[in-house]
Design goal:
This protein is of the alpha/beta class. Helix content is 34%, strand content 15%. A 7-stranded mixed β-sheet has the order 1-7-6-5-4-2-3, sandwiched between helices. Strands 8-9-12-11-10 form a 5-stranded mixed β-sheet, with helices on one face. Strand 2, helix 5 and strand 3 form a beta-alpha-beta unit. Helix 3 packs across helix 9, helix 4 runs parallel beside helix 5 and helix 12 packs antiparallel against helix 13. The longest helix has 19 residues. The protein starts with 14 loop residues before the first helix and ends with a helix.
């Protein structure tokens, strides 16, 4: 087989083509379609000169192997990044990204709709380090400038927001942040770089829980952090100094999942649109939270900046008891009750919004349920949900 073309030559190819070839560099010593799992700590050198030679590729397992190199090369291509580091989970990716651009005495701005564990990092680890966090309304856009202080060094965004799916004007926020010399970070797990490329919209550090759509099979945990040229040196050194690394089997599973991510996300999107359009007309549902729906308040921003939507959304129910929600969820046959998402399976969880928001209080008194639509036939999922809503309404 001939050597695949380089990433620059692939720039005009479709995303499915790029996913099939990214990170593969066939050579006489690595002539495999799938890069093998390399489990390594110690690297042996021919002599002392080789240990310190400028052309020596691998020095220690934690600093890189053919398996990690293949995945980071692929992520660099997909993100348009100067460099990528791997982390053992999405939360670890968030932590290393924040630590790469913050120091004691700094001020951080965080969207009020961020993933709850992100808040835990800010309110716990960063606070103990003397870093102040201010949470802001994601709808502020360029208006977030009023919250900047002389020591504001970073702003953390997530779009759509966790659990409640609010959109943000990322380019406007990035423009403001850069005028103040601040680093812009974005949790892009929902869209992935297939549906939104943060670095092309002014973000400096794009991160994902690759556990979700990159892996796609709910059998590995891994995070990715990709940076532009401005943020890459600090990210690389921080990750290395913290000893951040991911297990080789998880890296290999992420590489395997990456190859089919385009076709899986297309199916997630198609099925989710079918389910949400059905659900928003159901008498038990007050509102569906999914930016790809024309009825969603964030639809215009989503349509302007994003080129697709994934399988995760929320549904605000009409007034009902917790027992009624439990009756609905407990009887579902095709939806598992689990906290993750992004795999081939459909999932549902009831959401407790108490104590999460500080800048934008959640004013809905009725229950919120988060759904992930997997790769099952959407008509089967709708039939399962219809029976669930019957149980909910019968329960009262």
């Amino acid at each position: 087989m001939s050597q695949p073309s380089d990433p620059n030559a692939r720039a005009s190819h479709g995303v499915a083509t790029r996913l099939s070839h990214a990170g593969r560099s066939l050579s006489p010593d690595m002539p495999f379609v799938n890069v093998p799992v390399v489990r390594a700590s110690t690297v042996l050198f021919e002599d002392v000169a080789a240990m310190h030679g400028p052309d020596t590729k691998y020095h220690y397992g934690r600093r890189g192997t053919p398996t990690s190199e293949a995945l980071t090369d692929a992520m660099n291509e997909l993100e348009g990044a100067a460099g990528t580091v791997l982390a053992p989970s999405g939360l670890a990716a968030i932590s290393v990204a924040l630590l790469s651009c913050l120091s004691a005495g700094d001020h951080l701005l965080v969207t009020d709709t961020a993933y709850r564990p992100t808040r835990n990092v800010c309110n716990g680890v960063l606070k103990r380090m003397g870093i102040e966090t201010t949470y802001f309304d994601p709808a502020l856009g360029a208006g977030v400038e009023a919250l900047f202080k002389p020591n504001t060094k970073a702003i953390f965004t997530e779009a759509p927001g966790s659990l409640t799916f609010e959109m943000m004007d990322i380019p406007a926020i990035a423009e403001v942040a850069h005028r103040h010399g601040a680093t812009v970070l974005m949790d892009n797990t929902w869209a992935t770089p297939l549906f939104f490329k943060p670095l092309d919209h002014g973000v400096d550090i794009s991160l994902m829980a690759a556990t979700k759509y990159v892996v796609g099979h709910s059998d590995a945990m891994i995070g990715t952090v990709s940076a532009n040229a401005r943020a890459w040196p600090a990210l690389r050194s921080t990750s290395g100094d913290l000893g951040m690394f991911t297990g080789p089997d998880d890296m290999w599973l992420a590489l395997r999942g990456l190859r089919t991510m385009a076709v899986r996300l297309e199916r997630h999107q198609t099925s989710t649109l079918a389910v949400t359009r059905w659900m928003e007309t159901h008498p038990a549902v007050e509102r569906v939270l999914y930016p790809a729906l024309e009825s969603d308040p964030g639809h215009a921003l989503w349509k302007r900046d994003f080129c697709g939507a994934s399988g995760l959304f929320g549904a605000i129910l009409k007034p009902c008891s917790k027992a009624a929600v439990a009756a609905m969820l407990d009887g579902l046959e095709l939806f598992g009750l689990g906290y993750s998402w992004g795999g081939f399976e459909s999932l549902a969880i009831p959401c407790d919004m108490s104590g999460i928001r500080t800048a934008t209080p959640w004013d809905m008194a009725t229950p919120l349920v988060r759904f992930h639509i997997g790769l099952e036939d959407p008509k089967d999922l709708i039939a399962d949900l219809a029976k669930g809503f019957e149980r909910l309404m019968a329960h009262g």
